[in-house]
Design goal:
Layout (H helix, E strand, L loop, with lengths): L4 H4 L3 E5 L2 E4 L3 H5 L3 E8 L29 H12 L4 H4 L3 E5 L1 E5 L4 E5 L2 E4 L1 H16 L8 E8 L3 H12 L6 H7 L4 H10 L4 E2 L10 E2 L1 H11 L23 H15 L11 H26 L13 E3 L5 E4 L1 H10 L4 E4 L2 E4 L7 H14 L5 H5 L2 H17 L2
Helix pairs in contact: 3-5, 8-11, 9-10, 9-11, 9-12, 10-11, 12-13, 12-15, 13-15
């Protein structure tokens, strides 16, 4: 393909793509603009400017914060690290404007003249940080794609309008509804009774670090639910906890259902005694603080030092453990449900004195390498991995009862 003036211009940015399609409507065609939708490798967005965006990335290039990372940043990072196979559908992607474009179908590259991201600066920024972290760890960037929308127009006023509109339209989502209905108030009170000052995020607009990630807490609690409280009696001996790893919407939906039935606001759809829902709801309240602490403990468990595991574990320059992937620790957390016990002070996770974390770590390492091919998302979604680790804790439980 002969290079055009647009490709030789200093204001032109190469944008490799995987797929795209022209979806312009009659109004677009009549007003001399084009709309393209497609998917591109995540590294395609790294060099795009954000001049036209009303919101820049909230972290600077050196990682020093102008503001602290929000739950939005953490959610994007979490998907990249733990569920990169779903990034293209969980992330809203980027919206790009350009004054003109050309395409090289053989090279699968778009040449964008004076482009700018107008929505998705946070996505781009977290991708950059993730890309840099991979390089520091000596890891290859996984094969991840991002959704993009390209708006081609020379109308500067329209570009400004689009940037404002795309950045300030918020939907009322399930978390906000649960918060407004008061369905999270008792859970927060139970958390604060043991961990003073902790606040649950009850709305999608509460983005600062002052609030705990409510959905993540509910995922951890669901992983810790013991078989005796499992609503599906057929799975009570070894409940299938795979969904707790990455289906935060389901965990929130389940909690709201449990709350509504426990409070008598609705009847259970299945033939389950409402009293069981009440006890399960009480488990959520009793275990909330311990679940939060267990998650924090395993996310940076120093027992992973010396395991030789590379993928899914971030270390500092002294090889201390900074972060362990959710895909590795959720099967471990789910196995601890074998130690759930109702005491005079409420539900607790009480391992027997003979039990040690190192045994779980050794079993998790074997499952990670042999069953999950050393891939954290695969382990997080593998029932076989959950079962292998649960066998250890259930064995200890049987030997001590």
């Amino acid at each position: 393909m002969k290079r055009t003036a647009i490709e030789n211009n200093a204001d032109t940015v190469d944008f490799p793509y995987y797929s795209f399609r022209n979806v312009s409507c009659p109004e677009d065609n009549n007003n001399n603009r084009k709309i393209l939708f497609g998917h591109a490798p995540v590294n395609s967005v790294l060099s795009l400017p954000t001049d036209e965006n009303v919101r820049d990335y909230l972290l600077d290039a050196e990682g020093k914060t102008r503001r602290r990372p929000t739950s939005v940043h953490r959610a994007i990072e979490d998907t990249l690290k733990n569920s990169h196979h779903k990034f293209s559908v969980l992330n809203g992607g980027v919206v790009i404007v350009a004054r003109d474009y050309r395409v090289d179908e053989q090279k699968k590259c778009l040449f964008l003249y004076q482009p700018s991201i107008i929505n998705g600066s946070q996505t781009q920024g977290v991708i950059k940080d993730f890309f840099n972290d991979c390089k520091k760890q000596g890891e290859e960037l996984p094969d991840i794609h991002v959704t993009f929308e390209l708006i081609v127009t020379t109308d500067d006023d329209l570009i400004a309008e689009i940037s404002i509109a795309r950045n300030f339209q918020n939907d009322v989502m399930s978390l906000s509804i649960a918060g407004r209905l008061g369905q999270l108030d008792e859970l927060e009170a139970s958390l604060q009774a043991k961990l003073s000052g902790k606040k649950l995020r009850k709305s999608e607009t509460q983005l600062s670090d002052d609030y705990l990630a409510t959905e993540r807490l509910l995922q951890v609690i669901a992983a810790l639910v013991p078989g005796e409280l499992w609503l599906n009696d057929k799975e009570s001996d070894n409940p299938n906890k795979v969904y707790t790893y990455d289906k935060k919407a389901k965990c929130l939906k389940d909690f709201r259902e449990i709350y509504s039935i426990a409070k008598g606001e609705k009847k259970p759809e299945k033939k389950v005694d409402p009293a069981k829902y009440k006890e399960l709801y009480q488990f959520y309240l009793d275990i909330a603080a311990e679940a939060y602490q267990l998650y924090g403990k395993w996310k940076a468990h120093q027992g992973f030092k010396g395991t030789g595991l590379q993928k899914g574990i971030t270390r500092d320059e002294n090889r201390n453990i900074l972060e362990v992937s959710d895909g590795i620790i959720f099967p471990i957390l789910a196995s601890l449900s074998a130690f759930a016990k109702k005491t005079s002070e409420g539900w607790k996770i009480e391992p027997p004195s003979a039990f040690c974390d190192e045994e779980l770590i050794r079993t998790a390492k074997t499952a990670f390498m042999d069953m999950a091919n050393s891939d954290p998302p695969t382990m997080g979604k593998s029932k076989a991995c959950y079962s292998a680790i649960y066998q250890i804790t259930s064995l200890y439980k049987r030997l001590t009862t």
